[in-house]
Sequence to fold (248 residues):
Amino acid sequence: MNKAGLKYRADLADAAPRRRLTALVVLAGALAFSFATRTDASEIILANDSIQPPGAGAPLQTFVPGERVAGWFTSPVQGDLVGVQIYWDSLFGGNPAQQEMLIDIHPGGFFPAPSPAAVTILGPVLVNATPGNVINEFRHADPPTNLQPIQVPLQQGQTFAVSLEFLNQSNPGPFGSGIEIDLDGCQGGTNGVFAVPGGWVDSCLAGVTGDFGIRAIVKPIPEPAGAVVMTVLTGLLLPRRGVRRNRC
Fold:
């Protein structure tokens, strides 16, 4: 498992092998080279996937009600988990918004089975767009009222998971939506599937061919003063742009 819960994506065009880097944080106004991306202030987004909009992933439409998908991460810092992100996709985009059962934040566990949830987001509504992807971002445990901010304490090096439980039967084809996966292979030990029947298994062993578009937002404590965190993609520093966000 990638111990930072983050992934470097080599250029697909040259089929170079994927490499892993260690996240660096440089203070006093310098740049921080990291697999994480910046949101607000010093927040860090942990991701196993390499999905970059537009159209860099594919919907996985193979689930029945009660099944789950999960992303596993290891926090690179002490801090609070303050939000989660879900990439939701369809073949052509623009499908109606879809309500699923819940999103759980699990503070531990033994892969592929996570611990009981510390926070549960009931009835998350997931949207996709045309063209391009949408990040469905959840920062409250009680959408749509949004009165209970998510705050799950994390220690540096703590392994945790974020899971999505499905309410709806998948509808394969152009009119079905689903969790998005990336297109450059499945990393063992970072993605789990709860199958009905069967329970928790490594998604790679279950035949999933990519990493789930499930991400976690961590706010370091104390916050690094003046740090700038950007996306690393094929060796370049790129600002986040062209991302449509459905925020709750």
The two ends are 30 Å apart (CA to CA).
